[in-house]
Amino acid sequence: MPRPTGNVRLKAARVATGFNSQQDLADALSEHAKRLGIRGLSIGVRQVRRWESDNPPWPQPDCQRVLVHLLGQSMEALGFTPPWGTDGSKPDPVQRTPVAPGAVPHRLPVAAARPASAFQPTTVGSDFHTVTRSHRRLYWSVEPSGLHPAVEAHARLGCALLPETAEPTRSVLAAALAETYLLAGRIEFFDLREPSLAHETLLQALQAAGEADDSLLGSAIIAHMAFIPGWAGDREAARERMTAARTYARRTPTSAEFLAWLDAVEAECETRCGHTRTALHLIGHAEDILRDGNEHSSPEWMDWFSPARLAAFKGNTQLLAGHLPQARASLLAALEALAPGEEKQRTVVYGDMAAVEAASGNPEEACSYAAQALDQLALTWYATGMDRVREVRRALAPHEHERCVRSLDDRLYDWSTTVSALNR
Fold first, then answer.
1. pLDDT in tens, 162-179
2. Domain chopping of the chain, boundaries
C-alpha cells in the first residue's frame, strides 16, 4: 500500500473537521477570517494545496490565526515547521477558545516551552538588536556582497535564539529579527538584483514581525514587497500589497514621514507601470503630509527616506513623464539636500540627471553626470545606480561617436568596472 505523501497532518485535520476538499477548507478559512475581524484575507485553493505539500511554507501571521482557530490545533500539530526551528518536542493540540467578532486571537508560541535552564537571559534581545542596528548602519557604506552573508548569519542566529526566549524578551528579539530579514531583503532586491530571493526573505521578515506583533514594521516590510511586482510592471499585485501596507500602518501611531514614504513607494510602482500621472498625484500628497507633519516620530529603523529622497522620487517620475525642466529642478534640489551617508541615493540622482540631459539633447552634460555617478559607484556600489548609468548610455546611442560618449565608455568598461558588474 503506498505511503501517504504531503502534509498529512493538515490533511487529517481538514478531513476530521468536516472539510472533504481543499476548496472547502479554503472557503471556510476565508469566511472564518471575516468572523475573526481579519479584513481582506482571502485564501485560495492553491494556497491550501501548498500547505498540504511535502514542504509546506510557514503561513503568514493572519493565516496562522485563522488556521489555528478553525482547526483547533497548533501550527506544529498541523504539520508546519517555523523558519526558526522547534525544540523537537511533540506539540500538544491547542483547544479552541471563543473569540468575539472583530477581536484578534492571542498569538500562540512558535515552539513548546523549554526547561527554564534552556532559556536565554533577558539581555539577549537587546544584544541581538545591537548587532542588527550596526548592520543597518553598515549597509550605507559596506560592499553589499560582503555585508549580506553577515546579515544572513545573524538572521540564522536569531531563528535559533527565538524558541529559547520568553516575553518580553521574545518580542524584542522577534522585532530585531524582522529588521534583520528586512535588511537582507533590501540588499537582495536593490543591490544584488535577486527579486525572487528578496520575496522569500521579506516573507520571513513579515513572519518575524508578526511574532513581535509590530504592525508598523509589518507595514514597512509589505511596502518593500510591493516594489517587486511594481518594478516588474504588475500594477495589480503592487497595489494590493500597498493596500495591505497601509492597513497595517493604520493599526498604530504613524509618523508623517512614514506615511509620505508609503505614498512614495506606491508612486514608484505606478511610475514603473507607466502611470506617471497617478504617481505625481501620490508624490504631491506625500509633500502635503510632510509639510503638515504630525506628533508621531519615525522608528529608528526607518533610515531610507527623507524629504530629499522624496524629491529624488519626484524627479525620476517627472523624467519618465517627459517633464524635463521640472525633473531637472527636482533632481538638483535632491542633490543639494542629500546628507552625508546618502551616497547610494546620490548615484541614482546623478544617473537621473544624466538621463534628463540626454533626453534634452545635451550629451556632454549627460556624460558629466554619468561620470559623477561612476565616481561614487567606485566608492559605494549600488546596483540601482549602475542600472541608471547603463540606461543613460543606451539613450546616448545616437551620440556614440562623440568624444564625451567614448570617454564615458572608457570609464564604464574599464577593467575594474566591467569585472565588478559582471561578477554581480
1. 888 888 999 999 999 999
2. 1-78, 322-424
